[in-house]
Amino acid sequence: MGEKITVSLIKADIGSLAGHHRVHPKQMEMAEKLLAEARDSGLLLDFRVFHCGDDLQLLMTHRRGENSSEIHGLAWNIFKEVTEKVSKPLKLYAAGQDLLAEAFSGNIKGMGPGVAELEFEERGADPLVVFAADKTEPGAWNYPLYKIFADPFNTAGLVIDPSLHGGFKFVILDVFEGLEVELNCPEEAYDLLALIGTPSRYVISKIYRKDGLPAAAASTSRLSLIAGRYVGKDDPVCIVRAQHGLPAVGEVLEPFAFPHIVAGWMRGSHHGPLMPVPLKYAQCTRFDGPPRVVALGFQIHSGILEGPADLFDDPAFDLARQRANEVADFLRRHGLFMPHRLGPDEMEYTTLPKVLEKLKDRFRKAQ
Ligand code: F6R
Ligand code: MG
Ligand code: MG
């Protein structure tokens, strides 16, 4: 085993170009410059800036561990500075949207931006896949993470490779109660599914191999629960390690060949298919969607990132994209009817209750 490093992916929607469509290149430029300064000062080992739709993504490697106030503070300050110096002067749409707290208070979790972090000892060769999605919520990872780490029909290695055969431990967060539970797979797969089939409430936050090897981390923040009102969707991120005793990169990508239906899309109020796309298509258009996901592959050595490989930039995912378009078309025909529109529980956190409030006094006892 090698040295311990931490990969932190911290993201926020701090304003975008053409409504909620995409990050402005000048926002990325400024974030690059500020992260380069942090690397040169010794705080970071390496970094990448990218975007998925209207979310600015800061991928950082360092030795400060998970939940480091220095790293979280760096990301917060960058989001603030880019908001003040680029988003606001250019009047980008919803400038500073996800910065829900007044001031930084030591840990960026709960302040608006999404965070996925994984500390691990670098192996001889360590492939990493970083996922980012736009126009959806953290529970969107439940289905693919289950497939990758618990379903042998997806991950052949769970059966074939003795080093995966023992299975994985999942950490699940109840985002309403702030409670978490650990469940072991395959033994407790039915219990796991009983929870994560409700992705609006139960969200996979971490996955470890049974021997404790860190395998995956996902962001869990739900903006509406932090703010108590609708502030756009959370647009989650996820880090997955691969190969050599972990699922292969191809097994990590395989679940996305099925564009499963997630909550989000227009006004955070609709179900739609999650379309796997290359970076150049990571921008939402039709009905502010359909929701997108990108996958970036890296090799990491002493915290230095080699890559990215734009993993969904491949005809092997053409069919998934076509299916996503067909499903999107089918769902759109429902207009505002469920199950395209989310159910009443989820609509609590949108602007719909204000409309319903207006009608309250017009109801009378039915004859
Ligand atoms: C979804 C999203 C968009 C907006 C929609 C309305 O996450 O951000 O679909 O909800 O474009 O935006 P406003 O209310 O800003 O006009
Ligand atoms: Mg936006
Ligand atoms: Mg977004």
Description of the structure:
The protein is an alpha+beta fold and 367 residues long. It has helices spanning 25-40, 69-87, 142-150, 157-160, 162-165, 189-196, 223-227, 249-253, 318-332, 344-347, 352-359, and strands at 4-12, 46-52, 55-62, 114-121, 126-134, 168-174, 179-185, 202-209, 214-218, 237-241, 261-264, 270-273, 275-276, 292-301, 304-310. Helix 1 (25-40) runs antiparallel to helix 2 (69-87). It starts with a strand and ends in an 8-residue tail after the last helix. One magnesium ion binds next to loops.
Give a brief rundown of this model:
With 367 residues, the chain is an alpha+beta fold. The chain is 26% helix and 27% strand.
What structural class results from the helix and strand content?
alpha+beta
Shape: globular
Rg of Cα set: 20 Å
Average residue pLDDT: 96
Number of DSSP strands?
15
Helicity level, as a percent range? 25-40%
Distinct small molecules bound, one entry per kind: fructose -6-phosphate, magnesium ion
Strand proportion, as a percent range, falls in: 25-35%
Q: Helix count, per DSSP? A: 11
| N/C terminus separation | 75 Å
Question: What distinguishing features does this structure have?
Answer:
binds magnesium ion, nine-stranded mixed sheet, four-stranded antiparallel sheet, 367 residues, binds fructose -6-phosphate, globular, 11 helices, alpha+beta
Helices and strands in order:
Layout: E1 4-12, H1 25-40, E2 46-52, E3 55-62, H2 69-87, E4 114-121, E5 126-134, H3 142-150, H4 157-160, H5 162-165, E6 168-174, E7 179-185, H6 189-196, E8 202-209, E9 214-218, H7 223-227, E10 237-241, H8 249-253, E11 261-264, E12 270-273, E13 275-276, E14 292-301, E15 304-310, H9 318-332, H10 344-347, H11 352-359
Parallel strand pairs: 13-14
Antiparallel strand pairs: 1-3, 1-4, 2-3, 5-10, 5-14, 6-7, 6-8, 8-9, 9-10, 11-12, 14-15
The structure holds fructose -6-phosphate and magnesium ion (MG) (2 copies).
One magnesium ion binds at residues 13, 53-55, 134-135, 235.
